[in-house]
Amino acid sequence: MTLSSAAYGLLGALPATDNPSADFSDTPWWVALIKALVIFVYLLISTLLVIWFERRIIGRMQQRPGPNRNGPFGLLQTLADGAKLMLKEDITPAKADKIIYLLAPLIAGTMAFVSFAIIPFGGEVWMFGHRTPLQLTDVPVAVLLVLAVASVGVYGIILAGWSSGSTYPLLGGLRSTAQVISYEIAMGLSLVAIFLFSGSMSTSQIVAAQSSLWYILPAFFSFAVYVITMVGETNRLPFDLAEGEGELTGGFHTEYSSMRFAMFFLGEYINMFTVAALATTMFLGGWQAPPFIAAINNGMFNHGWWGILWFTIKMWIFIFGFVWLRGSLPRTRYDQFMRFGWKFLIPITLAWVVAVAFIRGAQLGFLGEGTVTVGPLGFNTSTLVIVAVVAVIALAVAWVWDGRREARLAAEQVSPPEEIDPFAGGHPVPPLPGQRLREPSVALTAGGSSGESVVSGGTVTAVKEEDHG
Amino acid sequence: MTIRDIVFVVVGVITALSGLLAVSTRHVVHAALWLLVCLGSLAGCYIVLGQELVGIVQLLVYVGAIVVLVLFALMLTRAPIGPQPDVDAPAWQRLAATLLGAATTVLLALTALPVVGREQVDLDTPVVSTQQIASGIFGTWVWPFELLSVLLLVALVGAFAVSRTVLRRRSRS
């Protein structure tokens, strides 16, 4: 808390306006078109790379080489897989709703690309004689656009599940939709704290507002919630319940093959990039250079085209996180996952947003203007009071919760009975560690059939005869 | 006629037609999907008129949440592929619905057109910003806004209570 309260003191004035800080006045339409094309190619190449990256990293984690035959280090493996997918037979089930079955992968594939239109890749650069920001476009409500596009992308999944005319895809589609729409709420709420800090929903303005301090520090809790929800939102392990192979064969895309399946695959990976890029923009300062590099030579690395490098590095840190999670965690159970989302994440994020609103209100001087000076830094008194109150409440809640949890654990810690009758429930049950099997009785059932006790090597085992009548 | 006018007319026609199809189709899920197209193109109308915030919130709330929930409820209960003759309404209901719809349209046109019909707005320099909408909602119109929230909350609690009583009755019998 001391770190974040220092951060609150440093974060000073409210940005004057919520409008984008990027200036698109010198961007003719053909430059915008070139930028759109470059973003498209950037995403496609990133997808090719990330599939290879994921398989290699998981291979390392599982102590096997991973794909290493096609091209140097197996880099062309994804390309080969893509060519294979394209050459496969395209199957449409007889009971499918043909048009929607065709439409669903298109929605899933295209909607994934749209969000990148508002992600800032860098500052202003000279491009063909025009001064233009490295960003396709920006609107005052850019972040809401990402959320809206993500929620339209859900239709790809739900319609694919329904239009296949088959049970497993329908179940997978329903699961996936429930998952995405419930985690979207927590995601939106966690981003509200960023809107409060930056005073804007425009991505370029949010990046500009982080020039002195990245929001991962003051909004650390939002960051944690966002990282959890972004895994839930992209249907990745440990939250890939929509396509749990053991339960639902392939989930919503069970019936899909060939290029249509490839569209879902592409959409899923681009969605990973979208949420990672949004996390970079909202919490890690976007395209701005890391703190110490930014100071080199009067901000030499903090301008123009360098932004793309920092942005890509930060985005790939999140991608590595995704792969790491997939390599190390098992799938959660569906009811646990939903309970976590609705009963824990959403209420606690709401409380956090209220706390941030108070802190910001105090910072902006709505609750009095008195300041306390500690050395060179001046702190707003009401901000300190609010931060202290929030910290005390958080600690108290954590203490009470911990106490309750311990009490519950203690209540659960009833040691199992020393002896167990393995057939008590009608079917054989193995004993828990430390439990003894009950000595079998000689006569087990009435009606003439008798159990036979066999003494071998000092242990007594019962051979129970089933009365098949 | 500027390009903006043409786009607005096209999007408006799509909205109206998809709304019509939503109530006239016999495929249950397709009805929900036409509703989706209708609400989505309405968001397009707002964006053409320069109100990005309203358009995107429309997309987020109606397309992203409400129609998804409609589809969800359909698929949890019964969402067959193909036309459903048993969802057909009888002729008198269709007639009544047409009449009511037409009457509502006339009423809205009669009240809205005289009030804002002559108003001229320059869309190239938008005058209403996000901050103005915010201060409108949380300043001038804060009481209606809060009342609406209470209404939604009451509806939520009511739905919960109804489902609980039905469940309890069923478990008792």
From TrEMBL, chain A:
Q: Which portions of the chain have biased composition (kind: Low complexity)? A: 445-462
Membrane topology of this protein: Multi-pass membrane protein
Q: Where are the transmembrane segments?
A: 28-53, 99-119, 139-160, 181-201, 213-231, 261-284, 304-325, 337-359, 379-401
GO BP of this protein: aerobic respiration
**Keyword annotations for this protein?**
Cell membrane, Membrane, NAD, Quinone, Translocase, Transmembrane, Transmembrane helix, Ubiquinone
Enzyme Commission designation:
7.1.1.-
Q: Where is this region: Disordered?
A: 418-469
Q: Where in the cell is it found?
A: Cell membrane; Membrane
Q: Where is the signal peptide?
A: none
* Summary of the function given for this chain in its UniProt record: NDH-1 shuttles electrons from NADH, via FMN and iron-sulfur (Fe-S) centers, to quinones in the respiratory chain. The immediate electron acceptor for the enzyme in this species is believed to be ubiquinone. Couples the redox reaction to proton translocation (for every two electrons transferred, four hydrogen ions are translocated across the cytoplasmic membrane), and thus conserves the redox energy in a proton gradient. This subunit may bind ubiquinone.
Task: Write out the similarity annotation.
Answer: Belongs to the complex I subunit 1 family.
* Protein name (record): NADH-quinone oxidoreductase subunit H
Identify the species of origin: Intrasporangium chromatireducens Q5-1
Record gene name = nuoH
From TrEMBL, chain B:
Q: Where in the cell is it found?
A: Cell membrane
Please provide an example of a Pfam family that matches this protein in its UniProt record: Oxidored_q3
Please give the catalytic activity noted in the UniProt record.
a quinone + NADH + 5 H(+)(in) = a quinol + NAD(+) + 4 H(+)(out)
Q: What is its EC number?
A: 7.1.1.-
Principal EC category = translocase
InterPro entries per the UniProt record, alphabetical: NADH_UbQ/plastoQ_OxRdtase_su6, Nuo/plastoQ_OxRdtase_6_NuoJ
User: What membrane topology does the annotation report for this chain?
Assistant: Multi-pass membrane protein
Q: Which GO terms describe its cellular component?
A: plasma membrane
Enumerate the GO terms in the molecular function aspect: NADH dehydrogenase (ubiquinone) activity; quinone binding
UniProt keyword list: Cell membrane, Membrane, NAD, Quinone, Transmembrane, Transmembrane helix
Regions that span the bilayer: 6-24, 31-49, 55-74, 95-116, 147-167
| Protein origin, superkingdom | Bacteria
Tell me which family the UniProt entry assigns to this protein: Belongs to the complex I subunit 6 family.
- Functional description taken from the UniProt entry: NDH-1 shuttles electrons from NADH, via FMN and iron-sulfur (Fe-S) centers, to quinones in the respiratory chain. Couples the redox reaction to proton translocation (for every two electrons transferred, four hydrogen ions are translocated across the cytoplasmic membrane), and thus conserves the redox energy in a proton gradient.
Designated name of the protein: NADH-quinone oxidoreductase subunit J
Which lineage is the organism of this entry classified under, starting from the top rank?
Bacteria, Bacillati, Actinomycetota, Actinomycetes, Micrococcales
